[in-house]
Amino acid sequence: MLNRLFIACLLITRAFAQNTPVLLPQPETVRYTDEKLPVSRLTVWIPASAPSEVRFALEELKAMLGESAGESIKKAPSAALATFQWVVREPGGALPEVSEMNGKSERERYKLTISGRGVRVDARTSAGLYYAVQTLRQLITGQGKTAFIPGVVIEDRPALTYRGVMMDFAHGGLPTVAEIKRQIDFLVRWKTNQYYFYNEVSIELKGYPAIGYRSGYTQAQIRDIIAYGKQRHMDVVPFLNLYGHLHELLRNEQYAGLAIGQYGHELDPRKPATNAVLKDWISQYAELFPGPFIHVGFDETWETKRIADDKDVRINAEDLWVQQLAFVEGELKKYGKTVLAWTDMNNYYPDIIKRIPEGVIPVLWEYKPDTVEINRYLNPILREKKPFFIQPAVSGWGHIYPDAAYTYDNIDLCLQAGVKHHALGFIHSVWTDPVEPFVRASWLFMAYGCIGAWQGSVPEKKHFTEMYSRVMYPKVAGEMQKAFDHLAAANASLDKCLGRNTNGMPRGTIIESWSNPFLPYYLKNTNEHAADFRNARKSGEAAQAELIGALAKCSSQDTAFIHSMIVTARLMAYTATRFLWAKTVCDRWNESMLVRKKNDFVVYDLAYPCHGLLVDVMDEAGELKTAYSEAWRSEYMPYRLNTMLGRFDVEYGLWQKLYLKVVSYRIENRSDHVADQPFDVLFKPDF
Fold first, then answer.
1. Given phi > 0 = left and psi -120 to 50 = alpha, else beta, which region is 426?
2. What is the spatial distance between Cα 455 and Cα 12, in angstroms, rounded to a whole number?
């Protein structure tokens, strides 16, 4: 580990000083030479007998080399004459296996040697070959006929065996299958090997036609995603909910009787019909997902505990939790599945870890950048000497754009704890609870965590956006780096203004971003934080400018992503604008009418049809609605889009009603009339 950290620091310095390629994740050892290999000299031999995973890796190599050189890479006449030589020493090994939990697996190990004569990859399995190709991709320098690969010897293997991202397919928009494939392509660049498909009832199940209708994925789509992942050495792991978080099921009258509460969130394990349903589900999920692992959730089962505490002393909530987990694990064991489950209920049941069935792997999740909080869940696992996974998150559940410092620190601390205590693996959560934010805004932070999981230590934060932008967006790296930094700054400024009144809702700025800015609390808050709101606007506008500049020069494959980020930047600037404009409107009216006692063209300033302050906000809200819809459709299915567009409609209505009230007030009074009430009292702005 210390060797990898030393090499990482050394090469970061070299990368900036000598413009050597940025390698993310940083390999275990790297030794550069003075040699260079022109990309145009590379030839590849793909034998007809090559396994499909090997063939895919080599075809991907040909494609990326061809893109860099500007022409197709030639096929070698024989293996001996190819300038790209490869050895895969063992068959199979495409995906992570349960047998690797001992931490001694060499499955993903590879050695990459580049000289002026050619390239050689020595890999234990096809996974090692594929990851060597991903590293080679980052080594290519320049474009066209002058593109070359520097001489280097790299030996590499991961610090953690299991490295995953959990994508939320239950709370927000549902990414299209094409977008899911883009996410997988993105994640494998950082050598991620598990893609956790978080599902409540968003996967089609036979015999339940009304559940997830037009708001989920068919089994054929899931099989397509699984196959796509396997080609890229990514295991698509089902992340199910087989106890709590099932409101989407239980709100239906047909299944409401399975709940422990009324139209609630949790199943009632005491009812035979409940486990009959689960047996059916488990058989279908086990058949659909061929991999060895299944995550069953079991988090946040507060409803059962509340009912037990408040209403029904006959319910022992802890016993029910253990009983249900044992039942689920026993059923899944029949299909050869290894079960993962969250451990947060340890907060309510202090002895729960020692009662977890032996075959269940506990998964510690903690999303705060707080070592004390992490250890509160980690220590009971360590006391019981249980193998475990650790799971931080991108803070996308609380902000339009994730809180960069909060997310980085949470990942840092969880990874440090995981490596120190020999965690089996690392899962990076991406939640979509507020619905509004685009997942694409989380990609930078997903990469940060995935890179850290391979290296065993996080990337160097100070230069991370620069290094990441150089790897991901070589044509527009400067613009993208500045855009990411401006977006982070915009969120930091908004975080000083909003986020204190969420009352159990997702923490962060987004819940208050649509609140009535004319309410007394918010007018006072805006007065106190006017400078912070202005800084948020400046940073949001600066991010837009950089992203718009990037559009003119970027690769065509990046345009949809950059358009999405522009909408994100506009939403952040708009959040600040609506609060500042409410203050400005009130200040303009009150200063004129109440202080100066003069109708000083105030109605003109507020309600001029093309440039009045009220019209400004209507214009931006209307334009944003269109841009948001376009960005949504490029990433998600239609499900929940109308819910989001409705926010823009209500927002537009607030300002349109105010505009009409001000115009009517002007018509009903003489032109020199002076009002004797503050703006917010006289017009009572409301939705």
1. beta
2. 14
- Secondary structure (3-state) at 658: helix
Contact 54, 89 (CB under 8 A): no
Task: Rounding to the nearest 10 degrees, give the CA dihedral for residues 61, 67, 72, 77.
Answer: -20
15: tokens are 């990368």
Q: For the whole model, what pTM was predicted? A: 0.95
Estimate the share of the chain in helix, then strand, then coil, as percent rounded to the nearest 5.
55, 15, 35
Instruction: Report CA dihedral (14, 17, 19, 24) to the nearest 10 degrees.
Output: 40
Spatial contact of 460 and 9, defined as CB atoms under 8 Å apart = yes
Beta strands in 134-190 (DSSP E): 148-156, 162-168
Q: How far is CA 279 from CA 259, 275, 569, 574, in A?
A: 16, 6, 46, 49
Q: Can you name the residues that pair with 112 across neighbouring β-strands? A: 121, 154
119-123 and 110-114 strand pairing: antiparallel
Element (H, E) at 462: none
Q: Which residue has the tokens 């809180």?
A: 403
Bond from prior residue into 459 cis (ω within 30 degrees of 0): no
pLDDT tens, residue by residue, 205-256 = 999 998 888 999 999 999 999 999 999 999 999 999 999 999 999 999 999 9
- Whether 560 contacts 634, CB under 8 Å: yes
- Helix runs in 334-476, H state only: 352-355, 371-383, 404-420, 443-455, 464-472
pLDDT reading at 13 higher than 60? no
